Amino acid sequence: MTEKEPEKKVSTKTAYALGIFGIVATLLMASAVVYYWEWVHDLGAYGYVGAFLISILGGATIIVPVPMLAVIFALGRVMEYTWLVGIANGLGETVGALTIYMAGYGGGSAIYYRTHGRLQNYYVKLMELMERRGWLVLFVLASVLNPFFYPAALAAGALRFGVKRYFIITWAGKTIKGMTVAYAGY
Question: Is the dihedral of CA 128, 131, 126, 156 positive or negative?
Answer without folding.
Answer: positive
